Amino acid sequence: MDVSEPASISSGIAARYAKAVFDLAVEGKKLKALEGDIAALEAALRESADLRELIASPIHSREDQEKAMLAVAGKLGLTDIMKNTLALMAQKGRLYLLPQLLDALKRAIAEAKGEITAEVIAAKALTKTQADKLARALKASTGKTVKLNMSVDQDLIGGLVIKLGSKMIDTTIASKLDSLQNAMKEVG
Prior knowledge:
Elements: H1 7-27, H2 31-47, H3 49-56, H4 62-76, H5 80-91, H6 98-113, E1 115-122, H7 128-142, E2 145-152, E3 160-164, E4 167-170, H8 173-187
Helix pairs in contact: 1-6, 2-6, 4-5
């Protein structure tokens, strides 16, 4: 397994696996089940250092990786589509692409549903009302349903940083102070 492949090649390979899995799920009307698979695998990767090590380490044989992933898939109750994909990825020495595969699948499902995800970084946690208002405002500007992936950065003085696709909206106090400082330099 050559994990030194450039990121663009790796993401291209993960995208091809994701397209195949997504197409099979749509064809079999198993999109909702695929979403469950993705959530279960993400949780397992987040919670298990052993699983992260298994998919990333070249010291495990492909056969051992396949057996382990089939056991994990059985324990998590994954669909046959995902179970077979994990087995194939192990056979081909490509399990290290699993996080990229999951991200690509989430994007494909969101696109099929007409959704986009906004990464929101705030100085403090937003209330439900604030989050709903932000989601409605973003929906009005994009025309799509917006899911918010929120996090808190206590280093921010105040405000938000919103990443929506290739756009970034920075309403933090620090960025406003920087803008003011730049404006003052231009004047004086």
